[in-house]
Amino acid sequence: MNKAYLSLERHFARLSSLNDAIGILCWDKEVIMPSGAAERRAENLAMLEGLRHEILTAPVVAELLEQAEPGDDVWRRANLEEMRRLHAHATALPGELVEASTQATARCEMVWRTARENGDFAAILPTLSEVLRLTREVAFATGEKLGLSPYDALLDTFDPGTRQTDIDPVFTQLAAGLPELIGTVLEKQNNLPAATPLSGPFSVPRQEALGRQLMQQLGFDVTRGRLDVSTHPFCGGATHDVRLTTRYDENDFIPAMMGVLHETGHALYDMGLPPAWLSQPVGQAGGMTLHESQSLLMEMQVCRSNAFAGWLAPKLQAAFDVPTTTAGWDAQNIHRLLTHVQPGFIRVDADEVTYPAHILVRYELEKALISGDLPLADLPSAFNERIHALLGLHVPDDGRGCLQDIHWPEGLFGYFPCYTLGALTAAQLREAACKQVPQIMPAIAKGDFTPLLGWLRENVHSRARSASMPQIVQDATGRKLDASAYLAHIQRRYVERAEDA
Amino acid sequence: MNKAYLSLERHFARLSSLNDAIGILCWDKEVIMPSGAAERRAENLAMLEGLRHEILTAPVVAELLEQAEPGDDVWRRANLEEMRRLHAHATALPGELVEASTQATARCEMVWRTARENGDFAAILPTLSEVLRLTREVAFATGEKLGLSPYDALLDTFDPGTRQTDIDPVFTQLAAGLPELIGTVLEKQNNLPAATPLSGPFSVPRQEALGRQLMQQLGFDVTRGRLDVSTHPFCGGATHDVRLTTRYDENDFIPAMMGVLHETGHALYDMGLPPAWLSQPVGQAGGMTLHESQSLLMEMQVCRSNAFAGWLAPKLQAAFDVPTTTAGWDAQNIHRLLTHVQPGFIRVDADEVTYPAHILVRYELEKALISGDLPLADLPSAFNERIHALLGLHVPDDGRGCLQDIHWPEGLFGYFPCYTLGALTAAQLREAACKQVPQIMPAIAKGDFTPLLGWLRENVHSRARSASMPQIVQDATGRKLDASAYLAHIQRRYVERAEDA
Fold first, then answer.
1. Which transformation does this protein catalyse, written as a reaction (chains A, B) (predicted)?
2. pTM for the full model?
3. Which fold has domain A160-501?
4. Which of A2, A205, A237, B23 has the fewest CB atoms found within 10 Å of its own CB?
């Protein structure tokens, strides 16, 4: 490597440090900050984002990127590539466009809160039109700079290296069978005895203690992270300081518990990144798809399995001080509660069988919005029609329809597909892991996550961004990402009701 | 005003935002951060400090300071002056000196922890010598740039505008009478019945609830601040987000309670700064002396008074669910506990009568260390001799002597006098306030702090840095700072044991 490359490493280490500062301030905003500080904090964060942009787009960076020679080391080469990608994204857009987008999304977000509540699409149409118009400008400008189609340019922001041509065949395979599969699953479920609900109340301190116990059981290092409470659960924080949040309902502990397990999947990924590269672009976690695959692998693939439910049931009884003979607290019923399927309007409440339907609809529609094929005014009817086709439901109002999610009002187009790509990746990774290390699920049945975590560390976490998401999936599982492992998993768990699912 | 001045305002608003980010990250480090993140957080903070220095010393700032015309507005003029002062401090030192100082103090701090524990001055002598050598370089370089003596240059870092010539006569007046005064106070105290200790345990949640109640009673706005726990209590945070901390002892609630009242005094100052100037240098709180005067005015002057003890006693009984007839929980005994005098070795544990002795010693010795008149090797004997002269105590080891405080190992010379200047200022401000607004203390006797807070807001808080500390004291009290109000206060409260003290 040469001096220019080393200068870039120092430059990007500074950015990494700034990212940490922003990460902690964002966490603080959601968890700790007193309400009266909101406006000022927004200014503070905008200033830090501005600094980040300035540092990333400083003229010296372009010069250094021209001159840099990383040598033969795979990691350094990948690091330089990732620097180039970040720099290209940051310099693709004129300052006025960034500014206009920020303002438009801020306005639209505000309007969205009321519009969603009132199911009033007409109210958001003008501001959302403006957001869409600017997002298309961003997509075209970024695409031109990176040599990508506009939609691929948006995808690349969230999931470096993923292209529409990767997604289309996979989602087509999935969509083809989904309505029938859901029908079969529901029929099978209806022939089984109904799951017994668990009755509370479940005190928050006990739920919290359970969450902490489970986090650590999965491998979370409490000296390098925290568990707290926020309105919208997330996993954030900074390097060596991974902070996840949940929210508690005293009548039902399952949502908080599964939320903690989900966020712990994210956290374990961040905690497993290679220490030597933590302050470089190549040392960061892969894009949204890989990140979501790690949370869903834990939450959906593993922690809703019969194997885990068997270990979990007595722990739950102990956590809430329930006599061992109480009805409903056995492993079989717990498993049934954790795998109940119910088509519904709300994406974030969906089970793993019906969830992809929400994403398939969003993906198809956002491609059409970005290309201009779908006029924004026609979005509600198009959305409702597709939901009906996939889930058999009639959307009663736009608040429970196309307005339910904040993503598009926030300008996040190209983000939705990562959720389902993550679910498919989780299934394919787990299938491969269990084939390569057969003791993974027997160990889970004893509450031992070390074989699974060891495999994930080696095949996913430790690779960070040294390879692309498709390459990491290919190397770990022996094939490109497809929907077959996910479909096989749904088949075994929800149709065959197999003991090992 | 001209364009250059307006550019400076924008430039310094950015710095203010960066200060907020640093404030929250420092708070997080002391209160929230998991242990494994310590090293990384230190890097993050060093990076942000580096950015702050870069922004403050950017070549454009020097140009703008040359060209700026603030117009006739007093605040803008004072703002430009304060910008010039900050810029002069930041550009006075070559980068290598700043770097060397940072490294030397970091090393010395580490050595200090063990040396204090072992009372081993010899162990710290080499690293402390290096810190002193570099601090003297800093003092000479800064002094040259600002046209100040080396010691005044250090003072100016913590307390803009305060000079050794202001302090010397005041401290001389104080030192002259202190040993005799302490003797008289102790004699008087010995002739009174001993205070009855209150017996616990006092649960942390109850202590915390009491702290929150008292904070709000004093005027703390909970929508713009927080109360938390940390090893070393402090008041920090950011604009519109004032965060204070305390620590709890289940056997004695008084230290935590008085700590909260002290930090609330700091917090009320920050919360009372003029909103229009919050992101400018002129809108910041005055230096250390004024800040400490606000905490000591609340904690010492007001909250250890008979008036406040009368209101407090039944609140304490309610807070800890103590039957009203329990011995010791009456106002008179509470007041006696809050005003107990006991010469001791440890500065931070000292009462308001003996506290100045510790500062007088530090002040005299640090002046001699900076001037070179006192060789560092002679510090322990000089320190012990002065403590004996003022407090009549024989220091048993350097851990309880000159090594007890972290300030000098951290390179903080010129900081100690602000504590006692703050105590004297608190007394003089309170004397003036009560003369001008006679209902202040009768209101306090009913738990009503609004007349006092109103006076402080008008005469201190709202002035921010629009005038110097000496000017603010002069305007508020009609004279320069001296020791007379403090001495009169000690006389009335501890010698005469007056009802109104």
1. Release of a C-terminal amino acid with broad specificity, except for -Pro
2. 0.94
3. Neurolysin; domain 3 (1.10.1370)
4. A205
